[in-house]
Amino acid sequence: MASDAKLRDADELIKKANKLTKLSFFKWSTDWSSATALYEQAAMAYKLAKQLEKAKDAYVRAAEGQEKLSSPWQAAKDLEAAGAIAKELGKFDEVLELYKRASDLYNECGMPQPSADALAKGARALEEANPDEALRLYMDSCGMLEEEGKEHMAFETYRAAMSLYLKRNRQLDAATVLLRWGLAADKSKAVHSQCKAYLSAIIVYLYANDFKQAEQCYNDCSQIDAFMNNEHGSCAFDLLRAYREGDSVGIKHIVKSSSVIPHLDHTIVRLAKQLPTGEVMALASSVSDLNVADDDFT
């Protein structure tokens, strides 16, 4: 009964709001200020009455009103609320549209962090239903913060994108995100995060059996004193040496006894525990042959 009363109240609020926004022969002006407040009240009442579709539509109408009132910030908040409800309803095309529009409105306010956050929220809502679109939103969110010099605010988004790439078995893309995260950490003077990101990237390359790329990554990162003079750099060196020697037992021992690997992101720890994933002796042989060929060429 209480739910029915809330529903009737919400319906009445919508009727009042609609009247305030419509022109007629006898009514030549609209009152969006009053109507917008009524739409927001109706949205909350519909949520309490478990009428999610109507709640979503009321938030969208409220956002429209906030835009007409030149309040893009509040309009974006209403659109985010509508996006969260659309996710509950399984309307994922609307989820994408609502969060992207919210992001645009935050941008209009000159607020890059809330704008990037809106994209990240949309990405999280889409991870299961549309992972490819979620990844695009995650990376757009990171890019927005990078452009503003606010890389330190993107760390959790880098992590989310990396994890989703790994779930999609796109290890090389995950490693690329980790390297991007490492660069962001460098710019943010977050040395510990930087070292973790670089070691994680090397582990991902090794998991993907791309020893050449893992070694190239290590060589690039070894130019950075913070990494080379850190336990993370030593761990990477030991792993690569064990791979070159074809020592699968040694690789497992390094992972098991490492003091730094257990403190990496849990998705990376899970990959590390599965190393080596390929035939290490064959890899060692191919590396040796490659070195001999390089010596002959020189």
UniProtKB/TrEMBL annotation:
<dbReference type="GO" id="GO:0019905">
    <property type="term" value="F:syntaxin binding"/>
</dbReference>
<dbReference type="GO" id="GO:0016192">
    <property type="term" value="P:vesicle-mediated transport"/>
</dbReference>
<keyword id="KW-0813">Transport</keyword>
<dbReference type="InterPro" id="IPR019734">
    <property type="entry name" value="TPR_rpt"/>
</dbReference>
<dbReference type="InterPro" id="IPR011990">
    <property type="entry name" value="TPR-like_helical_dom_sf"/>
</dbReference>
<dbReference type="GO" id="GO:0005483">
    <property type="term" value="F:soluble NSF attachment protein activity"/>
</dbReference>
<comment type="similarity">
    <text>Belongs to the SNAP family.</text>
</comment>
<dbReference type="GO" id="GO:0006886">
    <property type="term" value="P:intracellular protein transport"/>
</dbReference>
<keyword id="KW-0472">Membrane</keyword>
<dbReference type="Pfam" id="PF14938">
    <property type="entry name" value="SNAP"/>
</dbReference>
<keyword id="KW-0931">ER-Golgi transport</keyword>
<dbReference type="GO" id="GO:0005774">
    <property type="term" value="C:vacuolar membrane"/>
</dbReference>
<dbReference type="InterPro" id="IPR000744">
    <property type="entry name" value="NSF_attach"/>
</dbReference>
<dbReference type="GO" id="GO:0031201">
    <property type="term" value="C:SNARE complex"/>
</dbReference>
<keyword id="KW-0653">Protein transport</keyword>
<protein>
    <recommendedName>
        <fullName>Gamma-soluble NSF attachment protein</fullName>
    </recommendedName>
</protein>
